[in-house]
Amino acid sequence: MVKRSVALAAWGEEGLLLVKRPEEDPEFPGVYGLPAVSQEEGESLEAAARRVAREKLSTEVRLRYPVAFGREERPGYTLELWVYEADLLFPPSLPEPRPGKTYYTAFRFGRPEDLKEAARTGSLCSRLYLAVKVGC
Predict the structure, then answer these.
(1) For the chain, what are the domain ranges?
(2) Whose CB among 51, 53, 60, 83 lies 3.0–4.6 Å from 68's, allowing a Cys bridge?
(3) What pairs with residue 16 in β-bridges?
(4) Where would I find the Nudix hydrolase domain in this sequence (predicted)?
């Protein structure tokens, strides 16, 4: 089975937007990384990237372009992930969580180098964005 996802590298005046996963998250508990969604059937990559902003950050973005793609075998599925860069059009805020979706518990602004902890824990989108922006 293939799961397609889109992560958003959203930039504001303060820097790169980083989101914190819940402590009970099974993959990356309490880690700051890039916000992401699973691509829905028939949804374009661009629409999924905009949905990250709307659903996960209660904001809108101006998409720049996809900057990275990666594929990774995970238990029970293959993850295909694109990372889109974008500009925040409005300040983000965290919406109320809905059942069956991963929501974030906090956000902050930083730099691509701040994704190193998430990359060490196995975050594919963090590894991809670091490779493009920092070269590691």
Answers:
(1) 2-134
(2) 83
(3) 11, 110
(4) 1-132
pLDDT tens digit sequence for 85-97: 999 999 999 998 8
Neighbouring residues of 31: CB distance < 8 A, sequence distance ≥ 6: 20, 21, 25, 117, 118, 121, 123
DSSP letters of 85-105?
EEEESS---PPPP-TTS---S
d(CA 95, CA 61): 16
Give the pLDDT confidence of 69-80 residue by residue, as tens digits.
Answer: 999 999 999 999
Q: Return the SS3 of 123.
A: coil
Q: How confident is the model at residue 7 (pLDDT cuts 50, 70, 90)?
A: very high
